[in-house]
Design a protein that fits this description.
With 110 residues, the chain is of the alpha+beta class. It contains four helices and two strands; from the N terminus they run ααααββ. The protein has helices at 18-24, 29-43, 52-60, 76-82, and strands at residues 94-100, 103-108. Strands 1-2 form a two-stranded antiparallel sheet. It is elongated. The mean pLDDT is 84.
């Protein structure tokens, strides 16, 4: 049930949080844990603060395709691609970040 997000046609109550909604429609403890790890954590919130109505709307949005999507070679391949040609320094104290229409300049401590 959770891998596909093919949920029953049961509407959430007004202001119902996602955890309460999923419990009400029959999710097991394991399924709730999967929902926390996969969907809610990705959204950056706790399941008890996440609107069931908003979550269902997002799950039903198939404009980018259907199903779970994972980057097969790991998520670091995305950041590696974005960092190509940049001087990226880890474990470095940042002193200033300047944003402009031309890009971003980061000044580090040393």
């Amino acid at each position: 049930m959770t891998r596909s997000w093919k949920l029953p046609d049961i509407k959430p109550f007004p202001d119902e949080d996602l955890g309460t909604y999923l419990t009400r429609i029959g999710f097991t403890a394991d399924q709730l844990q999967y929902a926390r790890r996969s969907f809610v954590n990705a959204a950056g919130d706790a399941i008890r603060y996440f609107s069931a109505e908003a979550a269902l709307a997002e799950m039903q949005d198939i404009s980018c395709g259907e199903g779970d999507f994972r980057i097969a070679d790991g998520y670091d391949t995305l950041t590696d691609h974005l960092a190509q040609g940049l001087d990226v320094r880890l474990n470095t104290v940042v002193r200033e970040i300047e944003w402009s229409g031309d890009g971003v300049r980061v000044t580090v401590e040393n």
